[in-house]
């Protein structure tokens, strides 16, 4: 083998996975067809669950130290969701994708993983033990596993001839990173009387400290083919149609046309090839859900691949990547389609849609509704299907970042990339010792409930502090394989 895992695609999903495999002690090659890293911001923010996951690896503070990334309300269909600011310990931040990619690439390089640029995949083959990848310049790599994180137009997915069912795009809208005058006078989503609309969301500041915004423009006659370049004149005209002279363009940094296509691959695993991020699911980019969902795919997959490579993974552990993440991707597609309808991206000004949005906006002011929407979009509402979820409310959910004696937090304990067993009264020391090469036990003062937490931060077993050792033993075997 040339490497344990070959990752094709060095965007946020691929680099997050490379870091997870680094933590797991798995040799990794990260290849990308681009000759250099893209300077396009694309996604514009990080959700609470992604921020928590970076904190679990000790990467959050270093990332936030690289720039000015303000906390943001977040939104559902342009309706602000300030409730999450108090509800989530780590509220959403406006961290552009370009900043995330730059940070990860530097971090990985410091650990000895350098992106192999200008590596265009042209062929792949697999057998029972190996995936062989061939690149355009003639290089061939053999790996135990290959992960496709090469985007919506995935070469890996095409080479697999895997179906990508769903809806093709029916319209395009303009997405641009801009500096504006008068942006403080504009609301996040605004329509003109004739159906033209603009959406504005903060993107932090440029190196000179000047505010940046993500701007989306749409409406009648604005749905042009994706390959048609976006011009400054088009941006100025769109702003004027919606805001008049109140908001003006100062600088256009980047622009593209995006579509409302919605597709999801039927199987996330094809033998020794697995798909993640936009290679597995695409949708209209709203709330940076594509980037965050892809990074969460990587966090779910990384430790499982690590177990498979090291030989301790139970037989069906890799299968849980599909069973856990496919429903999450499908749910994201549904909520994005709902938002698209409520925002009237087609610019129809349909009175029924207007009435629906007015009603939904009023309903979204109810605290419980705000909490539901905020939790859904932030990823904190995820509950993976696991045995015994009816016995404890935390099973299948992200573990709370508990403080322990000695000023240690649970997130800090997860930085090893191993499982964590919270054993408050020391009742499970004998059982835990059998898995001590994969699971760290935290004893006295570890909280009120006993809890087994996977390396990705999700609770996979919980019970009373002096509960059944046999139940814990079954959970350890289910998620961490046979005892040593």
From TrEMBL:
SUPFAM superfamilies: FAD/NAD(P)-binding domain (SSF51905). Residues 2-335 form the FAD-binding domain. GO terms for molecular function: FAD binding; oxidoreductase activity, acting on paired donors, with incorporation or reduction of molecular oxygen, NAD(P)H as one donor, and incorporation of one atom of oxygen. InterPro entries: FAD-bd, FAD/NAD-bd_sf, RIFMO-like. Pfam families: FAD_binding_3, Rng_hyd_C. Keywords: FAD, Flavoprotein. Its cofactor is FAD. It comes from the Bacteria. PANTHER family: BINDING MONOOXYGENASE, PUTATIVE (JCVI)-RELATED, TRK SYSTEM POTASSIUM UPTAKE PROTEIN. This is 3-(3-hydroxyphenyl)propionate hydroxylase.
């Amino acid at each position: 083998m040339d490497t344990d895992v070959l990752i094709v695609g060095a965007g946020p999903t691929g680099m997050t996975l490379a870091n997870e495999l680094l933590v797991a002690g798995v040799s990794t090659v990260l290849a990308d067809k681009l000759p250099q890293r893209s300077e396009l911001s694309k996604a514009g923010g990080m959700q609470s669950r992604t921020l928590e996951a970076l904190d679990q690896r000790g990467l959050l503070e270093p990332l936030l130290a690289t720039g000015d990334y303000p906390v943001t309300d977040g939104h559902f269909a342009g309706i602000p969701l300030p409730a999450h600011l108090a509800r989530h310990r780590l509220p959403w931040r406006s961290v552009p994708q370009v900043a995330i990619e730059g940070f990860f690439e530097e971090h990985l390089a410091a650990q000895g993983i350098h992106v192999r640029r200008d590596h265009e995949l042209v062929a792949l083959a697999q057998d029972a033990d190996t995936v062989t990848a061939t690149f355009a310049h003639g290089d061939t790599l053999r790996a135990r596993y290959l992960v496709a994180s090469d985007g919506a137009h995935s070469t890996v997915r095409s080479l697999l001839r895997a179906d990508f069912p769903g809806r093709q795009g029916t319209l395009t809208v303009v997405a641009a990173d801009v500096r504006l005058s008068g942006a403080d006078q504009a609301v996040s989503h605004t329509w003109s009387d004739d159906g033209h609309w603009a959406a504005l969301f903060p993107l932090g500041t440029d190196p000179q400290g000047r505010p940046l915004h993500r701007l989306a423009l749409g409406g009648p006659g604005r749905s042009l083919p994706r390959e048609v370049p976006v011009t400054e004149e088009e941006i100025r005209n769109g702003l004027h149609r919606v805001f008049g002279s109140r908001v003006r363009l100062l600088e256009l940094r980047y622009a593209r046309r995006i579509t409302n296509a919605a597709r999801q691959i039927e199987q996330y695993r094809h033998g020794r090839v697995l798909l993640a991020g936009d290679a597995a699911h695409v949708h209209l980019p709203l709330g940076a859900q594509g980037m965050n969902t892809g990074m969460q795919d990587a966090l779910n997959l990384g430790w499982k691949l690590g177990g498979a490579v090291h030989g301790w993974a139970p037989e069906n552990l890799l299968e849980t990547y599909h069973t856990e993440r496919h429903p999450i991707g499908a749910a994201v597609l549904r909520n994005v389609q709902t938002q698209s309808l409520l925002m009237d991206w087609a610019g129809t000004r349909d009175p029924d849609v207007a009435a629906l949005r007015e009603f939904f906006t009023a309903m979204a002011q109810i605290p419980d509704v705000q909490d539901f929407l905020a939790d859904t979009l932030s990823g904190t509402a995820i509950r993976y299907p696991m045995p015994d979820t009816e016995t404890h409310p935390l099973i299948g959910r992200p573990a709370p970042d508990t403080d322990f004696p000695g000023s240690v937090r649970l997130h800090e304990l997860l930085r090893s990339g191993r499982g964590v067993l919270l054993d408050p009264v020391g009742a499970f020391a004998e059982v835990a010792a059998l898995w001590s090469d994969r699971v760290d036990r935290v004893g006295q003062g570890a909280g009120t409930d006993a809890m087994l937490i996977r390396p990705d931060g999700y609770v996979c077993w919980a019970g009373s502090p002096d509960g059944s050792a046999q139940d814990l033993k079954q959970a350890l075997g289910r998620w961490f394989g046979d005892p040593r």
